[in-house]
Amino acid sequence: MDTQGFGGIALGTGQVQPLIAAEGDRLHGVAHVDSESDAWYYFKTLWFVLPSYAGPVLVRGARIDGPGRVAFGEGPVVGHLIIPPGPTINEYPDGYRTAPGGTYVQSPGCYAWQIDGVDFSYQIVFKAVRE
């Protein structure tokens, strides 16, 4: 994915996708995680919304191979990521809306994001591995 404001390997094919800035097999959703603290591992994540969709977005995360929480943001904030409808502060001239930050997990493992919009809902699975 290359736009006026950002570029990289996007995961998924829906109207909202993440670019992950992590070593690993990003084409197959494998990200090497760095240690943020004793409680969290993370990798940088740039969520972007295609110009064809102007509605709200809800992104949730969960571990799917065992217990463990997922957090979002510039620091680990447990909860959901919300991208409001309409233009964002990080919107680019070509119409892409973005929500920069990170994805935080409590331990390496298999996780999924669920992305919901007004007329869509889908999941993207990723694996967080220690470097």
Summarize the structure.
The chain has strands at 16-21, 30-35, 41-49, 57-63, 70-73, 77-78, 81-83, 97-105, 109-116, 121-130. By secondary structure, the protein is mainly beta. Strands 1, 2, 3, 4, 5, 6, 7, 8, 9 and 10 form a ten-stranded mixed sheet that branches.
Tags for this entry?
single chain; 131 residues; mainly beta; Immunoglobulin-like; 10-stranded mixed sheet; 10 strands; 0% helix
Secondary-structure element sequence?
A: EEEEEEEEEE
Determine the N-to-C terminus distance. Answer: 25 Å
Whole-number count of domains = 1
Number of helices: 0
CATH architecture: Sandwich
Determine the CATH superfamily. Answer: Uncharacterised protein PF12988, DUF3872
Strand residues, percent: over 45%
Biggest sheet record: 10 strands, mixed
CATH class: Mainly Beta
Q: Which percent bin holds the helix content?
A: under 10%
Q: pLDDT under 50 segments (min length 5)?
A: none
The secondary-structure class comes to mainly beta
Mean pLDDT: 86
Q: What's the number of extended β-strand segments?
A: 10
Instruction: Kindly provide the radius of gyration, computed on alpha-carbon positions and rounded to a whole number of angstroms.
Output: 14 Å
Might you state the CATH topology name? Immunoglobulin-like
From the spread of the alpha carbons, the general shape counts as globular
Structural summary, described in words:
This protein is mainly β and 131 residues long. It has a single domain (16-130), classed as Immunoglobulin-like (Sandwich), CATH 2.60.40.2410. The chain contains no helices and ten strands. It has strands spanning 16-21, 30-35, 41-49, 57-63, 70-73, 77-78, 81-83, 97-105, 109-116, 121-130. Strands 1, 2, 3, 4, 5, 6, 7, 8, 9 and 10 form a ten-stranded mixed sheet that branches. Strand 5 and strand 6 (77-78) form a beta hairpin. It is globular. The two termini are 25 Å apart.
